[in-house]
Write a structure and sequence with these properties.
The protein is mainly beta. It has a single domain (about 1-155), classed as Porin (Beta Barrel). About 10% of the residues lie in helices and about 60% in strands. It has an eight-stranded antiparallel beta barrel with strand order 1-2-3-4-5-6-7-10. β4 and β5 form a beta hairpin.
Length: about 160
């Protein structure tokens, strides 16, 4: 548990000292992400093509807090705005409460892959991604249900 908290605190500290610019020249984004659950999302660019994302949400098992490190890549398309794909990895923990699995504190590692489109003249971006998780507590389990749509406001 202490290692989980230290990892999350280090990632958060790194996000505050970073000075990169992301989509439409903005460094920060705040929004929602929804699929099998609902999450509030905060993103911060730490380099031109990398960012951190933190989410707090609820899903069919309980609540979750997740942190992701993402690598961004341009998609060459003849559309106005910015079109990117991204992959990432991270860590999640929360409360697992299901009749199908053991109940209690959950923690695990996450992967992520998705696409994002930022509007050309507005600080808004839309995303579609997949974030599966491999959880080690309260029991060893693979959560495949990480498909989600997102909408974020950049500032």
């Amino acid at each position: 548990m202490k290692k989980c908290v230290l990892f999350f605190a280090a990632a958060l500290l790194l996000s505050f000292v970073a000075n990169a610019q992301g989509i439409n020249g903005s460094r920060n984004a705040l929004g929602i992400r929804g699929g099998w659950g609902a999450e509030l999302s905060y993103q911060r660019y730490i380099a031109p093509e990398t960012r951190l994302e933190g989410t707090i949400g609820v899903n069919r098992f309980g609540f979750s807090i997740e942190g992701m490190y993402q690598w961004m890549h341009d998609i060459k398309a003849d559309v106005p705005g910015e079109f990117k794909w991204y992959v990432g990895t991270g860590f999640g923990f929360g409360d697992w409460d299901s009749d199908d699995f053991d109940k209690g504190f959950s923690c695990g590692i996450l992967g992520q892959a998705g696409i994002e489109y930022a509007l050309p003249k507005a600080p808004i971006a839309f995303s579609f991604d997949y974030r599966p998780g491999l959880y080690f507590a309260p029991e060893f389990n693979f959560d495949w249900s990480g498909f989600a749509l997102g909408m974020r406001f950049y500032f």
